[in-house]
Design a protein that fits this description.
Elements (H helix, E strand, L loop, with lengths): L7 H45 L4 H49 L34 E7 L1 E4 L1 H10 L3 E2 L10 E6 L9 E6 L3 E5 L3 H11 L3 E4 L2 H6 L2 E8 L4 E3 L2 E5 L4 H34 L2 H7 L8 H19 L15 H13 L2 H54 L1
Parallel strand pairs: 8-10
Antiparallel strand pairs: 1-6, 1-8, 2-7, 3-4, 4-5, 5-6, 9-10
Helix pairs in contact: 1-2, 6-8, 6-9, 6-10, 8-10
Length: 418
């Protein structure tokens, strides 16, 4: 059976008209029934009295009028109750129909979409610089990840060697914070596979197949100190193509060219220079994300100050924010090589040029400058909150001293008077 939805306003007007019609018809029926009953009651009461002749006509007429009034009032009460019952049922139908229409008209709430992730801060391969299809066969892939704050390299080396990898000891002694691992699981046969593991928590793969990359990342997990989120690790990565060609090693238009005439030891050193810059870039990307999260956590403070509202932060919360800020500042400016060239390149000019060129391509210096400006702004904001809390604490102490002095004065006055 089809149900026709009617506008609640029109439907209510329709039912009001119908109610008025019913009330008018009920009045007509009421009057006719009252008249009929009155005549019937009059004949029924008066005729026996007249026939018997026990009372006078005036008395009979008075009695008939009294009985007729009582009958009319009882009948009116009964009809009013019927009228109220019908009117309540009509009202219920009106409101139920209107409610049903409103239920149909309601639209489901649209859930707010999740805020999309920002673009990665690391350099991604540009579509404009994609090589030709004929050159893809000669291209190899180098990928860098930052997975944790630090690695236990000693224990990690034992686990990797027990899993089928082999350690390469061709690096100089002054590169002590790096573990070099070789693997036979190659992505392409043009070059051998290398894995550079930096103690600072970053890893760089050279010509390693994807399955081996995933397997190595799983072996890394027990040896990580303060690991990062997996989604963040894979989002903020560095991927750069390289090829083995004639001529000097260089970085040109986002592509590394390695000299094919170099000895294996020299080739490893050049790959180390490129890997060092790539590892700094991915670590810096993780720190940039951490700073963005910190900025979002204190973003409400300027808004509340602008609106003239009171910032509800305890002293411990403000000190915790200051600690997070200074820890991030310490990692970026003191415990990393972002502000200066490592000592390893001082007597290796050719490797220093490759390192500087890669850092310039990855915009590391500009990114460090931007992140330090953000840190300075956040420091000023946290200092403002700390000074505000110190002023509140000092004001509270002053009021406590005033109250104690007032109490002492009252005691002195009471002692003098009494």
């Amino acid at each position: 059976m089809a149900v026709r939805l009617i506008n609640p306003v029109k439907q209510s007007q329709f039912f009001l008209k119908r109610t008025c019609y019913l009330s008018s018809s009920l009045r007509c029926v009421q009057q006719s029934r009252i008249g009929h009953l009155s005549c019937y009651q009059g004949n029924f009461v008066c005729s026996p009295l007249k026939n018997r002749g026990r009372k006078s006509p005036d008395y009979c007429s008075t009695a008939c009028q009294t009985i007729r009034k009582e009958t009319i009032s009882a009948q009116m009460i009964h009809l009013q109750s019927l009228y109220c019952t019908q009117f309540e049922s009509i009202k219920k139908r009106v409101y139920s129909t209107a409610t049903g229409e409103s239920k149909v008209a309601l639209k489901p709430k649209v859930q707010s979409a999740k805020r999309p992730l920002k673009g990665p801060r690391t350099k991604q391969p540009s579509r404009t610089n994609l090589p030709r299809i004929a050159d893809v066969q000669d291209l190899l892939k180098c990928t860098a990840f930052a997975t944790a704050d630090e690695y236990h390299l000693e224990n990690l080396c034992n686990d990797l060697m027990s899993s089928g990898y082999h350690e390469i000891t061709d690096l100089p002694r002054d590169a002590s914070n790096v573990l070099l691992i070789g693997t036979d699981m190659l992505a392409k046969p043009n070059d051998y596979g290398l894995i550079f593991l930096f103690r600072e928590g970053s890893i760089v793969f050279w010509n390693v197949e994807d399955k081996t990359v995933k397997r190595t990342m799983q072996i890394l997990e027990p040896h990580e100190i303060q690991p990062y989120e997996i989604a963040l690790v894979h989002w903020e990565n560095e991927e750069i193509n390289y090829r083995i060609s004639d001529g000097h090693s260089k970085l040109h238009r986002g592509e590394i060219s390695l000299n094919s005439n170099l000895e294996p030891d020299e080739s490893i050193l050049e790959k180390f220079a490129f890997s060092n810059a790539l590892s700094l870039s991915v670590k810096l990307a993780i720190w940039e994300v951490s700073l963005d999260n910190f900025v979002e956590s204190i973003q409400f403070i300027p808004e509340m100050l602008k609106a003239g509202k009171q910032v509800k932060l305890s002293r411990s919360e403000v000190m915790q924010k200051i600690g997070e800020l200074f820890a991030l500042r310490h990692r970026i400016n003191l415990s990393s090589d972002l502000l200066m060239t490592p000592d390893f390149y001082w007597d290796r000019i050719h490797l220093e040029q490759l390192y500087d060129k890669t850092c310039q391509f990855l915009n590391i210096n500009r990114r460090v400058k931007v992140i330090n400006e953000k840190l300075q702004h956040c420091t000023e904001l946290t200092d403002l909150m700390r000074n505000h809390l110190s002023e509140k604490h000092g004001l509270r102490l002053e009021w406590m001293i005033v109250i104690l002095i007032s109490i002492e004065v009252l005691f002195e006055l009471a002692r003098v008077i009494f």
